[in-house]
C-alpha cells in the first residue's frame, strides 16, 4: 500500500479530544466527524485538508480516551495515512480496526514540515520526500496490512467469511 500526499503537521501529545472534540461525540456519522476533525488544534484544518493528505504528529499521538471517533474522523476527512513518532496504544489498535493506515517514524517526523509532499509505502515501511530523502518505519506484519487493505477489521472478517 502506497500513498502520496501533502503534510499537515502537529506536535506531541495530540489527544483524542483535539482530534475530535467531545462536543461532537453525539454522532457517529463519519462526514459530520470529519467536518470537525482537528478543529481545536487548527481551526482551518477541516477546510484545508484534501483527500490523500497526510497527518504528521509527534510522540504519543492519539492519547486520551479510547474512542474510535478519532481515527474515524481522520479517515473520513480524507487523510490517507498518519505518521507519528509514537502512537498511544489504543489509538493504534482503533486505527487498524477501522482501516486507517498509520506509521511510526520519529526520524521522519523530525525532518518533515507542513506543506511537504511525501510518498509513503506501508509494506516497505518507507517515507520519501520529493527531494529524495528516505526515512524508515517498522512495516506492519502481513495480516495487519490485510486488515488495513480491507478497510478495517469488520470488513476483513466479512471478506474472510465470504459475507458481503
Using brief descriptors, characterize the structure shown.
seven-stranded mixed beta sheet; alpha/beta; 164 residues
Task: Give an overview of the whole structure.
By secondary structure, the protein is an alpha/beta fold. It has helices at 16-19, 30-34, 45-48, 69-76, 89-98, 106-111, 142-149, 153-161, and strands at residues 2-9, 54-57, 81-84, 102-104, 117-121, 126-129, 134-136. The longest helix is centred in the middle third of the chain and has 10 residues, at 89-98. The protein is globular, with a radius of gyration of 15 Å. It starts with a strand and ends with a helix.
Task: Give a short synopsis of this structure.
The chain has eight helices and seven strands. By secondary structure, it is an alpha/beta fold. The protein is globular and about 45 Å long.
Class from secondary-structure proportions: alpha/beta
**Average predicted local confidence, pLDDT:** 95
Helix amount: 25-40%
- The arrangement of helices and strands along the chain is EHHHEHEHEHEEEHH
Number of E-state strands: 7
Shape, per Cα inertia axes: globular
Strand content: 15-25%
How many individual helices?
8
Low-confidence stretches: none
End-to-end separation in angstroms reads: 23 Å
Sheet having the most strands: 7 strands, mixed
| Major sheet strand order | 4-3-2-1-5-6-7
Radius of gyration, Cα only, in angstroms? 15 Å
Amino acid at each position: 500500500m502506497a500513498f502520496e500526499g501533502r503534510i499537515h503537521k502537529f506536535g506531541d501529545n495530540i489527544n483524542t479530544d483535539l482530534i475530535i472534540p467531545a462536543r461532537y461525540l453525539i454522532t457517529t456519522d463519519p462526514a459530520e466527524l470529519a467536518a470537525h476533525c482537528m478543529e481545536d488544534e487548527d481551526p482551518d484544518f477541516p477546510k484545508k485538508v484534501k483527500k490523500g493528505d497526510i497527518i504528521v504528529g509527534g510522540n504519543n499521538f492519539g492519547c486520551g480516551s479510547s474512542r474510535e471517533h478519532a481515527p474515524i474522523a481522520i479517515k473520513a476527512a480524507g487523510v490517507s495515512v498518519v505518521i507519528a513518532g509514537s502512537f498511544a496504544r489504543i489509538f493504534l489498535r482503533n486505527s487498524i480496526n477501522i482501516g486507517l493506515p498509520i506509521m511510526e517514524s520519529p526520524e521522519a517526523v523530525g525532518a518533515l514540515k507542513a506543506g511537504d509532499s511525501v510518498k509513503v509505502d506501508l509494506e516497505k515501511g518507507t517515507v520519501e520526500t520529493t527531494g529524495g530523502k528516505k526515512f524508515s518505519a517498522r512495516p506492519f506484519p502481513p495480516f495487519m496490512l490485510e486488515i488495513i487493505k480491507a478497510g478495517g477489521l469488520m470488513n476483513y472478517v466479512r471478506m474472510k467469511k465470504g459475507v458481503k
